[in-house]
């Protein structure tokens, strides 16, 4: 998915230190992915000024359920990425993916598609004609310095449904509840969908070197006893080897559980690019605008646009962002 926001709201936030037993709550902001009243809107919980990453997860958009007939669905023309991996996960609907690595695949509920941009890639995303409702998450993973210019790649996996006390889980990245995903990443990560039945209480082992985020898709969930409402992400720093998720309500609850080792590198993240310096972002934007071979071409896209044009750069110098605001 493209980050089409050209004028992000700037919020002044005070820096706070959080211990491993404290739960930080990240509230989403609404971002439109198009123009006009029918444009699809997403709820974005990271990045924020107070926290840029959960592990190496650097971007989380949560959308739907959207009635395609009312929102025109998803039609994102070819757009570029660098130095990141995109992770697509659907609860409902279907999206057609095409990229300049020659991949043409579908994103379906319960199946993870991970695309590695590395040095540069372009891709398009379009909801299929048979999609009535579109509902899911789009996540980005920042690539570390040693892998930021790696080759293009694409991985697809349909995880098994794993029984857990009081619910079900699907592991898309990493390991959880005795199940492991074959998806490979450049930093240690965890990504899973967890469904908790009414009244469920599940305490389980986690890697104590990981920080963890819980994004609530539906219902209400308690994370280590702290209530997290729908569309909010609860985040806990590394340091503990167990995590407790509870559903205090009389309805099922669904969350995305994200985790990873703290990512301490500084990055410049603007539009769909990740770099390390302002000058690098300027070069990437210019390369995309002049159709540089760095990003390749997407074959078979039949939308109204040939590609998404990069928005104008801001009038100020882009500064690196870190795991926590500095």
Automatic annotation (TrEMBL):
<dbReference type="Pfam" id="PF05726">
    <property type="entry name" value="Pirin_C"/>
</dbReference>
<feature type="domain" description="Pirin N-terminal">
    <location>
        <begin position="42"/>
        <end position="141"/>
    </location>
</feature>
<comment type="similarity">
    <text>Belongs to the pirin family.</text>
</comment>
<dbReference type="InterPro" id="IPR012093">
    <property type="entry name" value="Pirin"/>
</dbReference>
<feature type="domain" description="Pirin C-terminal">
    <location>
        <begin position="193"/>
        <end position="290"/>
    </location>
</feature>
<dbReference type="InterPro" id="IPR003829">
    <property type="entry name" value="Pirin_N_dom"/>
</dbReference>
<dbReference type="InterPro" id="IPR008778">
    <property type="entry name" value="Pirin_C_dom"/>
</dbReference>
<dbReference type="InterPro" id="IPR014710">
    <property type="entry name" value="RmlC-like_jellyroll"/>
</dbReference>
<dbReference type="Pfam" id="PF02678">
    <property type="entry name" value="Pirin"/>
</dbReference>
<dbReference type="InterPro" id="IPR011051">
    <property type="entry name" value="RmlC_Cupin_sf"/>
</dbReference>
<protein>
    <submittedName>
        <fullName>Pirin family protein</fullName>
    </submittedName>
</protein>
């Amino acid at each position: 998915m493209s980050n089409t926001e050209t004028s992000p709201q700037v919020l002044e936030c005070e820096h706070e230190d959080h211990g491993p037993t404290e739960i930080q709550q990240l509230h989403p902001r609404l971002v439109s992915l198009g123009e006009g009243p029918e444009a699809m809107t997403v709820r974005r919980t990271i990045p924020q000024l107070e926290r840029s990453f959960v592990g190496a997860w650097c971007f989380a958009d949560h959308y739907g359920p959207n009635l395609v007939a009312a929102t025109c669905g998803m039609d994102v023309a070819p757009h570029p990425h660098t130095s990141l991996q995109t992770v697509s996960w659907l609860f409902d609907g279907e999206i057609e993916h095409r990229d300049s690595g020659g991949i043409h695949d579908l994103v379906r509920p319960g199946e993870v598609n991970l695309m590695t941009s590395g040095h540069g890639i372009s891709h398009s995303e379009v909801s299929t004609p048979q999609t009535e409702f579109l509902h899911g998450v789009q996540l980005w993973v920042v690539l570390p310095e040693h892998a930021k210019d790696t080759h293009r790649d694409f991985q697809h996996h349909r995880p098994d449904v794993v029984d857990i006390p009081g619910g079900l889980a699907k592991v898309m990245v990493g390991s959880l509840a005795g199940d492991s995903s074959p998806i490979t990443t450049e930093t240690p990560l965890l990504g899973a969908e967890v469904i908790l039945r009414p009244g469920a209480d599940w305490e389980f082992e986690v890697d104590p070197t990981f920080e963890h985020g819980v994004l609530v898709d539906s219902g209400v969930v308690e994370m280590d006893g702290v209530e997290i409402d729908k569309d909010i992400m609860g985040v806990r720093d590394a340091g503990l080897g167990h995590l407790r998720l509870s559903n205090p309500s009389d309805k099922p609850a669904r969350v995305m559980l994200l985790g990873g080792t703290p990512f301490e590198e500084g990055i410049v993240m603007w539009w769909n690019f990740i770099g390390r310096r302002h000058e690098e972002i300027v070069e990437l934007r210019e390369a995309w605008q002049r159709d540089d071979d760095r990003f390749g071409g997407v074959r078979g896209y039949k939308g109204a646009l040939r590609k998404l044009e990069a928005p104008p750069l801001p009038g100020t110098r882009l500064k690196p962002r870190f795991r926590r605001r500095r």
